[in-house]
Amino acid sequence: MSTAEKHPVFAAELKADGTFVPQSNLFTTPFGYKPGEHRPEAGRYRLLWMKACPYAHRAVIVRRLLGLEEVISLGTASHFRTEYGWEFSLDEGGVDPVLGIRYIKEIYDAGDPAYKGRPTVPVIVDTVTGQGANSDYFRLTNYLETVWSPFHKTGAQDLYPQQLRSEIDALNDVIFRDINSGVYKAGFAHSQAAYEQAYDALFSRLDELEQRLAHSRYLFGDFITDSDVRLYTTLVRFDAAYYPVFKTNRNRLTDFPNLWGYTKDLYQIPGFGDTTDLAAIRSSYHASPHLRGFAANPYGIYPLGPEEQDFLAPHRREYLKGGYSR
Ligand SMILES: N[C@@H](CCC(=O)N[C@@H](CS)C(=O)NCC(=O)O)C(=O)O
User: 162-311: which CATH architecture?
Assistant: First the structure.
């Protein structure tokens, strides 16, 4: 495809050299307790997601790990994109039962009637005003981990420990640039050079993390942090979606012994595997109308593997008690 024939959904985000540069977020007012911020409040906010999206999935995992299910409600759009974007077709009557909306686009249109970007998930909506509160997919988990702490369940783990924040932030930046967004930069590239650049950066970063995880059960030791959630949501989609559809195929996740064991380990922890819908992931990336062209999939066939049993196999990482070397 030449750069003259840009993909209709992503056209605004494709540069002249064929590079994919994601749009910026519409709802960016932080959660917090200062004037002008969205004050955390139990029962007021609703997180909207669709199950195939790695960025939305990480907010859903953190919500579960921190025990915020009763505090922030969850609305689930279908993982098949319509011409108007994500639709609540899984719900009775095709509308979100709390917000009464049919499309996530309605939240974006209400926030900015002139909005021309893609209406994306995750987005947290204020159910009192019906307005979008925050769609900052990069920071959303950090808000849940910090300013939402008065609402965490008793004994919730600290996913963003104060003394590690600068290291977590630095690692999150490279995980985002080369891995989370890296697979999209490869998949949505409209030039060979842009694809190869993203592919090389992705696999050199995965090689680096493969080494890091040889001696450390999780990225920072024997405890889970925000960085593990971010890495997991891309890895668990890798062989099902990115390898075949986005052509990130130097090798599969299962060819990296440590990254594969690490992904199974996380999958088997409540909050990770039980929020991962492999069937939704497989069918969305392969057969959602807006992605079919990337997989040259004119008939919308989607694959049956990998399956849950693959992720439930023994990982044998329990003996790794930490020891990640800085
Ligand atoms: N909010 C970010 C990232 C989140 C994102 O890309 N979400 C995807 C799903 S993973 C989405 O909602 N896409 C909507 C669409 O493509 O229309 C963005 O605007 O690019």
Answer: Up-down Bundle (1.20)
Q: Is 22 in the pocket of ligand 1 (CB under 6 A)?
A: yes
pLDDT for res 325: 46
Gap from CA of 304 to ligand 1 centroid (Å): 25
Query: DSSP letter at 148?
Result: T
pLDDT at 292: 67
Q: Cβ neighbours of residue 255 under 8 Å, at least 6 residues apart?
A: none
Element (H, E) at 47: strand 45-50
75-96 burial code (b ≥16 CB/10 A, e <16): bbbbbbbbeebbbbebbeeebb
Q: What are phi and psi of 49, to 5 degrees?
A: -145, 175
Same fold, 45-151 and 162-311: no
Confidence of residue 304 (pLDDT cuts 50, 70, 90): confident
Q: What is the pTM of this model?
A: 0.91
- Where residue 222 falls among pLDDT bands split at 50, 70, 90? very high
Calculate what percentage of the chain has a pLDDT beyond 90: 79
Q: Which CATH class for the 45-151 domain?
A: alpha beta
Mutate to test the pocket of ligand 1, among 13, 83, 118, 185 (most ligand atoms within 8 A of CB): 118
- Cα dihedral: 181, 182, 188, 190 (round 10): 130
Q: How confident is the model at residue 290 (pLDDT cuts 50, 70, 90)?
A: confident
Domain ranges of the chain: 45-151, 162-311
Question: Ligand 1 pocket check: which of 23, 47, 53, 60 to mutate, most ligand atoms within 8 Å of Cβ?
Answer: 53
| pLDDT bucket at 300, cuts 50 / 70 / 90 | low
299 is catalytic: no
Q: How far does the centroid of ligand 1 lie from the alpha carbon of residue 184, in Å?
A: 10
